[in-house]
Amino acid sequence: MGSKTEVVKGHRPACDRCGSCCTGDVCWIGLTLMGTNRTPCPALEEHDGLTSCGLVADTGRYALVDLALTPDQITTLKTHILRINNFGEGCDMEPWIAEEQEAKQ
Fold first, then answer.
1. In the chain, how many H helices and how many E strands?
2. Is residue 87 situated within a structural domain?
3. Contact between residue 41 and residue 26 where contact means Cβ atoms under 8 Å apart
4. Nearest partner of 90 among 6, 17, 25, 1, judged by Cα
5. How do residues 85-100 score in pLDDT, each as one tens digit?
6. Which of 30, 72, 93, 103 has the CA that lies 20 to 30 A from 83?
């Protein structure tokens, strides 16, 4: 898997898709849709050494119940999953978050 490089104090390193965040935790959306907090997250997918969220890639595949959503509703749900889990905001793992909080004080 990936490695963190060139960390600037007060800034999260970019996500390198190592999957560490989902190996140790299941987000509340995952808990709601899949009905489990078993780790690693059952929706954590790996392809060619990079991980991704299966709830975003194929929401219906991981949902505990048939959501019977329209394509537009699925797109909206995926957008919320991305926003709520801060995808695109950088690494979510410690010590980056603690360092970020210190920098804000």
1. 6, 2
2. yes
3. yes
4. 17
5. 888 777 777 655 555 5
6. 103
Q: Is residue 24 part of a domain?
A: yes
- What phi and psi values does residue 46 have, to the nearest 5 degrees? -125, 130
- Band (pLDDT 50/70/90 cuts) for residue 103 is low
Report the number of distinct structural domains present in the chain. Answer: 1
d(CA 31, CA 38): 9
* Whole-structure pTM value: 0.68
Nearest alpha-carbon partner for 56 in 35, 95, 84, 37: 84
Task: Judge whether 9 lies within some domain.
Answer: no
